[in-house]
């Protein structure tokens, strides 16, 4: 009898493991009386998500017109919790996303974007989604001798135009060579057109995995200035909306908290090779 019960339990466990995990939520959306119509409109008409092509964060299949990537999945999961189920996509260089948002070509900057002083003047942000850190990338052997943020001064440093890296480097007095795309930026450091680039560690690691022969490396053991984390853009990855779209932003923010709380965000991160370490910027 015991053997039969154990066998049945084993089959049940195996069967359960074979089925895609379904995520449940404790709390329902409660935003009906927030005062502005942005959430109601999004639930009825859907939203247009804007992003730049930047694996593993986001990309668009040219054949199917379907968007994929870590940020795309997180954004859609959070918005679906809030009752938004229709999505369109606009792809453009990162530096054009906020102007497109303000011009109402898109409704959400769905490429992960960080809080910076300049951006706060123009847009509002969701609550935290996930986290990654900055990386200084140099040619193999580090011929420019870069060991800290201070040693970037006086050298040719690349960054994506309009990025948190671009804004911070200019603030500390670094002359920045700005690039519109990841491909241009990585080509510049690989061919020696710049001495270093400041980029997201997740993006750099993804590039190095896909291009093992590329002659670049990450500078190790660099102290990260506090203001880079807490003021200039390498705090939590978030998403941006128009300031007037308060009810949509509130619902979106709670949706992010709900998908972090029920394990769905963790599952998405792991799907793209990350871990629960990327849920928080402080050590777990």
TrEMBL record:
Residues 1-20 form the signal peptide. The lineage of its organism: Bacteria, Pseudomonadati, Pseudomonadota, Alphaproteobacteria, Hyphomicrobiales. Pfam families: SBP_bac_3 (PF00497). This is Extracellular solute-binding protein family 3. It comes from Ancylobacter novellus (strain ATCC 8093 / DSM 506 / JCM 20403 / CCM 1077 / IAM 12100 / NBRC 12443 / NCIMB 10456) (Starkeya novella). InterPro entries: Solute-binding_3/MltF_N (IPR001638). Residues 48-276 form the Solute-binding protein family 3/N-terminal domain. The keyword Plastid does not apply. Keywords: Signal.
């Amino acid at each position: 009898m015991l053997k039969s019960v154990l066998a049945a339990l084993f089959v049940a466990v195996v069967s359960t493991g074979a089925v895609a995990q379904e995520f449940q939520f404790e709390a329902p959306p409660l935003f009906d009386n927030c005062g502005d119509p942005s959430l109601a409109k999004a639930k009825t008409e859907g939203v247009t998500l804007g992003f730049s092509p930047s694996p593993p964060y986001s990309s668009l299949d040219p054949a199917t017109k379907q968007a994929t990537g870590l940020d795309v999945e997180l954004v859609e999961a959070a918005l679906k919790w809030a009752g938004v189920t229709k999505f369109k996509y606009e792809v453009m260089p990162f530096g054009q996303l906020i102007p497109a948002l303000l011009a109402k070509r898109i409704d959400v900057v769905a490429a992960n974007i960080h809080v910076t002083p300049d951006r706060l003047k123009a847009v509002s942000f969701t609550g935290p989604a996930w986290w990654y850190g900055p990386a200084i990338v140099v040619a193999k052997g580090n011929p420019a001798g870069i060991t800290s943020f201070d040693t970037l001064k006086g050298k040719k440093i690349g960054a994506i135009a309009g990025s948190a890296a671009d804004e911070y480097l200019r603030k500390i007095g670094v002359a920045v060579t700005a690039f519109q795309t990841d491909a241009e930026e990585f080509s510049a450091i690989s061919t020696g057109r710049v001495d270093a680039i400041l980029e997201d560690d997740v993006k750099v690691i993804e590039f190095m995995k896909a291009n093992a022969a590329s002659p670049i490396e990450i500078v190790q053991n660099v102290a990260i200035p506090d203001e880079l984390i807490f003021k200039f853009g390498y705090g939590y990855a978030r998403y941006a909306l128009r300031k007037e779209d308060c009810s949509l932003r509130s619902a979106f923010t709670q949706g992010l908290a709900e998908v972090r709380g029920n394990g769905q965000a963790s599952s998405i991160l792991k799907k793209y090779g990350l871990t629960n370490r990327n849920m928080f910027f402080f050590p777990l």
